[in-house]
Amino acid sequence: MTFNLRLIPLLPFLGAAILMLFGRKWKRDTVLIVAAGAIAGSCLVAFDAFFTALPRAAAGGGLHDVVGTWIAAGSLKVDLAFRMDALSGLLCLIITFIGFLIHLYSSGYMEHDPDYPRFFAYLNLFCGSMLVLVLGDSLPVMFIGWEGVGLCSYLLIGFWYTSNANADAGKKAFITNRIGDLGFLIGMFLLYQYTGSLNIPEITAAAQGGGALMQPLWGATVAFWAALFLFVGATGKSAQLPLYVWLPDAMAGPTPVSALIHAATMVTAGVYMVARMHAVYLLTPGAMAIVAIVGALTALFAAIIGFAQNDFKKVLAYSTISQLGFMFAGVGTGNFDAGVFHLFTHAFFKAGLFLCAGSVMHAMGGSGDITIMGGLRKKVPWTHGVFFVCWLAICGVPFFSGFFSKDSIIGGAFGTEIFDAAINPLAGEHLAWVGKAVGVVLMLAALGTAFYMSRLYFLVFSGSETRASDEIKHHIHESPGAMVGPLVVLAIGAALGGFIGLPGGLLDHPEWNLLADRLRPVLGPEMEISRAMEIGFMVGSVVLALGGIGLAYLFYGGGYREPARKFAAAAPRFVQLVRDKFRIDELYGFLIIRPVKAIAKGIFFVVDRILIDGFLVGGLAWVVDLVGSIARWLQGGDVQRYMAVFAIGVAAIAYLATQPMHTFFSNALKVTVNGLTVDVDAHRGSIAANRVLDYSFDFDDDGKPEVTGVASGAHHVYPQPGTYTVRVKVKDPSWGTSSTLTQKVEVR
Amino acid sequence: MGLLGWVTLLPLFGAALILLVPQEEESIHRGLGLLTAIVTFVVSLLMLSGFDAGQAGFQLEVNRSWIAPLGIRFHLGVDGISLWLVMLTTFLIPVTLLSPQAIGIRNIRVREFTAAMLILETGMIGAFLALDLFVFYVFWELMLIPMYFIIGIWGGERRFYAAIKFVIYTLVGSLLMLVAILYLYAQFHAATGGYSFDYAQLSHLSLPASAQMYCFFAFALAFAIKVPIFPLHTWLPDAHVEAPTGGSVILAGVMLKFGTYGLLRFALPLFPLAAAQAAPLIAILAVIGIVYGALMAFVQDDAKKLVAYSSVSHLGFVVLGILTLNPTGIQGAVYQMLAHGISTGGLFLGVGLLYDRRHSRKLSDFGGLWAKTPVFAACLLVIVLASVGLPGLCGFVGEFLVLIGTFTAQKLWGPAGLTGYFPAPKLMGGIAATSVIISAMYLLGMYQRLMFGPLDKPENRAVRDIHGAETWVFGIMVTAAIVMGLAPQPILNRSEKSVEAFVASYRDRLQEAKRNPDVPPHIYPPLPAAAAEGGGTP
Amino acid sequence: MSFDATQLFAYAPMLILIGMGCLILLAETFAQGASRAGLAWLGIAGCVGALIAIVAGWAGAAEPTTHFQGMLVVDRMALFLDGTFVAAALLTLLFAPPYLREQGFEFGEFYAMVLFATAGMVMVIHATHLVSLLIGIETMSLAAYVLTGCWRRSLRSAEGAIKYFLMGAFATGFLVYGMAMVYGTTGGELSYAGIASKVPQATKSPLFYLGEYFILVALGFKVAAVPFHMWAPDAYEGAPTPVTGFMAAGVKAAAFGAIVRLLGSAFASPLLVFDFTGWASVLAVLAAATMTLGNLAAIRQDNVKRLLAYSSISHAGYLLIGVVASGLGVASAKPAVLFYLASYTFTTLGAFGVVAWIGNRSDERLYVDDWAGVGTARPAVALAMTLFLLSLGGVPPTGGFFGKFYLFRAAMESPQLHWLVVVAVVNSMVSVYYYLRVVVSMYFRDSTRALAPTEGATMRLGLLLTAIAVVLLGIFPGTVVEWAGSIALK
Amino acid sequence: MPTTYYLVLSFVLFLIGTAGVLLRRNALIALMGIELQLNGGNLAMLAFSRELGDLKGHVFAFIIIALAAAEAAVGLAILVALFRGRQTVNLDEATLMKR
Asked: Subunits with at least 3 CB pairs below 8 A relative to chain C?
């Protein structure tokens, strides 16, 4: 069914365009009305569309809106078309709803910024792009959004452009994303090459048919490589190993941006994409294993880095990376709806956390250094409350949203059958360990999550005194209503959001899992796990969460405690290494960026300057110059030298002209081979009739001519086959000059 | 004279008119120049409206006898490929003339500059439209002279060197091409008894393999220098850097396309067998050029040089697209030519504007300009992103289609018995695609060093934002970049038939040539009856 | 063996030139001071008269007619080149008066000598007999020697003249000796047709080849083909500039006409063209050497006059390609050579005209650097000079381009000459480099000292005419090609 | 006497003349060398004319003599001009123009 889906992204785009063209001269309120109005309108349309779509989506359909043909060339045809099913609908709601909240929040947060209109223009642009990303019916349209959000991220990270660090961070984000995009593009090209289409439903259909994508390619299948390359795109966008490095730096942007783009929406695009292309992934357990392993490792790795960060937003950034790792582990183990579920809950609690961070930093005069915070519980009560809820949610405390979603991912990892060769014929024996290993790593990561989040909470809010300077302390205040309002809404979401994905199987009411139920037509049936296992994991994860919180309390409850100091003193270099994020950035700089730059510079000088311009061009010029100089040297001014050259010229011509058979124009010998018999004719034009020449024919080049005489032609029979050189000497008796002609003949 | 004749010659008449106005009347020169360019653009719009997208062949032909004794005819015609390149030319020239920075900082002799630009326009349009190889060659050389003067008179410090280098490089190729044209002419005579330089007739001439190789080399060399294909590119950074803004815009925006247009129009169709044999080499060079140009751009501190090297990279895509020899890739190549005209033209206008304001092109001399020039910064950002190939802007469509075409190159050619003709398409496509990363690195790096960071250089505080005509110039370029990114279809539709016909006829002629590689010059496919007459006498 | 005076009418152009030359010599004795300018006008009138006579005779010359027992012939080729020579003379007479006046040696004899030299050229091109050829060559050459050396104040002029004269006389020695050999070995034949008819028997003696090549060498000297070119740079530099143009255009064209006629009739036998004594291969090598050496030597010249002298050497090389192609049986080669000569005449005269224009008595401004800023100071002249230089370099839309195109086109029809065309093309490329050096100086550099050129209405007229001719020959060469082509129809 | 003898003599004359032009520094003597070359040609012409019994050769020889005279006249005039400028007629000193 068609529906004006185009309105959903169009409204924010329009808002952005209007603000860019006219916003500079407008009052702030007008700007806000346009910006928030655009996204609110979009949100309303999205809700309308979503609830129109749901009943149809249940039957496997959805809403569809073709704007027109975008690119058609040769066999390729890409429509500018949008499609809404349960999956994209859910994402749309998250984007527009949280987007709207963040617009509101920003009106307070950015209140004093001179570039207020520009900020909102970017935000609108971002929302539009993100909506195109999720609604896109084909990979190229999705790619518009994919790159568009990257662009907005770039612009917003570098929003305060006067600092080079911010601009650098933006550039780094864009370029790292582009590395991923290269993978996305190649994956797209592979899919096109083998399915002949870039339309997602068609690719899905082709993948479910199997054939085309199961062709062998580079030692695996097409599906494997396509899935892998697409996943490279996802690692860039969603900040997974090894391309996660941009996200911590991206915290340079305004905090609402971190909340919206770098926590709730954009960074989850990779997860969305994998879920969207699940049909392709299901064909290749190998690629899924890679997705799951990368996800799990990222979850753990980022959590560990999170232990030692002292910047509020940096901690949250690593937390985001880590949570995204969970999601990938979810989709990578075939538990697509769990991945999307975590995406959903994460959107709320992480956006809430970030906005709290913004609120706290707002209160602290812009500083995000948690070592100087502490005891803020009383001073910013609303913010504290929201943070508290979100903290519990991310730690996985029962009945908060994160509990359900994280649990279903971990449970799914242990229970997955994707890598079981006995059940999934596509999987090899060697993959059997993946599910369990991923599960274990994820459990460690969950423990780590509880620990570093609690550390953050305790260091910031607990205790009685604030470690900051008096001047800062004096200014600490709760944020205005425009900021607090959205926070509360997000807190509610973070607290209750988990109930849309209740483990229905456990409660004997699968339909209670609203999310999985709705997503089933898109992503297939949810994973079945035995009840005992499920309960076991629930208990286990509660223990992990509480354990992490408890451990953190031991270390940081009410401020820095003795164990924390002791630990830091015991392994100072390790702590420093973790604090320096394992120096991965430096490693990249050393291994990749600097060599590339040095090589490029080297090539520039060696190839362009020396080899081509110096040697080739300059060398030619040198030769030309040399000959010219010789000619000029000959022209010495002495007329008698000129005449001598003249005379030598005459002599040379006489010499050239009197060489018998001398010629520039053709091969003189005409050779006809017939078996072992060879006829050679040195006759040229009409000369022989007029001049008597002596010919001697030496057919085997042994110095002894076989035939001599005034006849220009001769005949010879070779004794055996082989390759011979015929040498003909022509003598002009009247001039006494002679010349020799040779030619190779092959007789068989 | 026909519509095409008018499009071609109007700028020349305008130039003559301008040269008659006394030296001092600079505003009249500018006005007349702009007027001429706009009228030409309007006439070219008439051409566009008269163009029938459903037809593959040449349309709106003008075909009059010119030098009858040699069978040379003033034969112009437009098809879906040249149509857009002409439109690009007639579009860019008025925009350039509108820009106050076009003439560069040596703001002298406006009359001659305007006239030179218009003569250049005639040369370019004529060369795009020419269907007679002699006419093509004349126009091809005709554009050389004004560009030489534009670089040499209004250029930067090393302008003599750059101008001479430009001319010599170009001549190296074009004169050998002239020999090959003459050879074709002689062989056509040998095969049919008629004398003709007409493209429609010569493109039926099938040469033996060895002769094809020589002729293809001559043609391809001329075009490869113009493109430029690595390693023939070193004239380009020098020429671009030294040329005044207007010269750089036209040089990069239009003139480089003659290389790729020539490959598509002449080198490949005329010598299918040799082209197929050389294709792997050229494709590899194109890929090298893509990466190489990008890497070179990455290490430049001179903004113009950076943009110049980026052209090497972008034009590599065009060459690669042409060599895929499937409609998708060639459509992409055609589109990339246009998009590059817009994006790189815009970049040169932007860099030129800054050069005009600050008399420096060194990136390290800038920084933090956004605060001073927000509108300009926004415009430049769009153009930079178009050049980076962001989807939704013009640069994406072409690169995307080229890469798609590259990936599917073998798929289309395999069934035709021509496997192995395009080596390792996925590898080549993959390597070429890395430029999406590097282009982001150098272009955003450039943008950052211009616009972001602290405004810590005192000279930069006085830089003024765009105003007046400049706003129009950048507004037009930005609009073009966005429209071409969102709605490429009107363009692709009109070139579709011609591209498909090109591929079909190329494949047909290639297979014929493969069957008879050593047959002496002959006509294939047979000349249509109407075209067979009309040849001249010796 | 009777003398029919009516035959003289066919040679009206030559007679008019000679007659007007004599008239000028007479008038010179009465002329005083400023009235000497009138002498130039007399010469111009003579040229115009000759042109009219040529046009009048054109229609009747469709079929060649021989006169004076086969000594002279009137045909289209001769008339075409006559027109070129007379045009060259006319332009020289337009350029010369202001120049001579400025340099202080305006004598009536100068104009007479120009007319006599032209008459000699006409004789050369009409000659179908070795005697008339020799007389024509000598008439032309002696006048040219005198013209070269007539600038009495200049040491260079005298030095150039003595070099030119000595080498010219040296070449005449070869010419005469060669003629003697041909005369003897052909059994007493001196007319071209007679020689051609006796070639089969004459080739039995090697002396015939000696004679043939001696004659060719002497003519090669006149066109300044390498290695007989060495006089040219010095003579061209020494001669008064308008004379240099006249020599580079007229003398060269006449010698080429003679070569084409001689090789096309007397030595046209395939026995002589091809093979080991064939002139085709020898001339092909000479052509390659000539253009290459001329161009490479020109690259480093700083003196514009000398630069143009070397360039004129290289153009002889291009023209030789046409001669060879014609010998190898390409029908369109001869018209191509004629067209090239015509366009080259206008171009080179124009270029030397500008060189004459730019200097004055105290400051000749012959060096490339001296030309700085001309583009700003005198845009029209700079534009004209640019046209001439581009034409010399073979860049469209000029006559030089079309001439080269036409010539190469003809050569490409002979597979044996493809290599030569490639060499020629590479050479054109090199040549553009040094032609553009002058353009660079004129337009791209700022003037170092004020320009005080030799002004004169006739000079301006001459430049205008040459510039228009160069452009017209480039854009609409059709008519001239038809004229030139009409010789091939017979 | 056989014609060959005359021809050999004529060639010798021609060579002597050539050598004179090439080797003697004095322009006057070089001029004489040229005359010798021409005379070599004349002698050959006459020898052939006599052998063939054809008068054209004789006539040609007269014309060549006339031309030689004209050449000498012009040549001497140029020599005078040269001498007036630099007070010498040595050819190796006339090297104002070179390269």
From this structure: A, B, D
Task: Return contacts of C308-311, CB within 8 angstroms, 24+ apart.
Answer: C308/C236, C308/C244, C308/C248, C308/C348, C308/C351, C308/C352, C308/C355, C308/C392, C309/C232, C309/C233, C309/C236, C309/C237, C309/C244, C309/C248, C310/C232, C310/C233, C311/C392, C311/C431, C311/C434, C311/C435
Classify B148 as helix, strand or coil.
helix
Q: What are the structural domain ranges in chain D?
A: 3-93
Q: Chain centroid to CA C162: how far?
A: 20
- Residues of A within 8 A of D18 (CB-CB) are 647
Distance from CA of A663 to the nearest CA of D (A): 28
- Interface chains of chain B (3 or more CB pairs under 8 Å): A, C
Q: Which among A635, A637, A644 is the nearest to D22, CB-wise? A: A644
Q: Which residues on chain D are in Cβ contact (under 8 Å) with C190?
A: 56, 60
Contacts of C259 (CB under 8 A, 6+ apart): C216, C219, C220, C223, C323
- pLDDT per position as a tens digit, B70-99: 888 999 999 999 999 999 999 999 999 998
Tally of domains within chain A: 2
Q: In this structure, which topology does domain D3-93 adopt according to CATH?
A: Helix Hairpins (1.10.287)
Q: How far apart are CA C398 and CA A602, in angstroms?
A: 45
Inter-chain residue contact C440 with B109, CB threshold 8 Å: no
Residue type, D32: M
The residue extents of the domains of chain B are 2-532
User: Over chain B, what is the mean pLDDT?
Assistant: 88
The answer to whether B and A touch (≥3 CB pairs < 8 Å) is yes
pLDDT of residue B530: 54
**Sequence-ordered list of residues with C-beta below 8 angstroms from that of C403, at least 6 positions apart, any chain:** C336, C339, C340, C342, C343, C344, C394, C473
Name the A residues in 607-646 with CB < 8 Å from any D CB.
632-633, 635-640, 643-644
Q: What is the pLDDT of residues B153-187, one digit of tens each?
A: 888 888 888 888 888 888 888 888 999 999 999 88
Query: Is residue C262 in a domain?
Result: no
A645: nearest CA in chain D?
D22
Burial of B364 (C-beta count, 10 Å sphere; 0-12/13-18/19+): exposed
Q: Which token pair is C191? A: 């007319």
- Chain C neighbors of B520, CB-CB under 8 A: none
Residue contact D91–A638, C-beta within 8 A: yes
Task: For residue A486, give its domain range.
Answer: 284-560
Tokens, residue A560:
């820095």
Number of folded domains that form chain C? 1
3-state secondary structure string, chain D? Answer: CCHHHHHHHHHHHHHHHHHHHHHCCEHHHHHHHHHHHHHHHHHHHHHHHHHHCCCHHHHHHHHHHHHHHHHHHHHHHHHHHHHHHHCCCEHHHCCCCCC
Best residue of A185, A243, A249, A615 to probe chain B, by most B CBs closer than 10 Å? A185
Exposure b/e, A534-553, CB count within 10 A at least 16 = b: beebbeebeebbbebbebbb
Give contacts of A229 with chain B, Cβ < 8 Å.
none
Does the pLDDT value for residue A237 go beyond 80?
yes
Do B and C have ≥3 inter-chain CB pairs under 8 A? Answer: yes
Q: Which two tokens stand for residue A641?
A: 């030298």
How far does D96 lie from chain A, in Å, by closest CA? 7
As for the ipTM of the complex, it is 0.87
Which of A633, A639, A647 is the closest to D91 by Cβ? A639
Neighbours of chain A (3+ CB pairs under 8 A): B, C, D
Token duo for residue A511: 């339909």
D/B touch flag: 3 or more CB pairs below 8 Å: no
Per-position b or e across B15-24, b if 16+ CB within 10 A of its CB: bebbbebeee
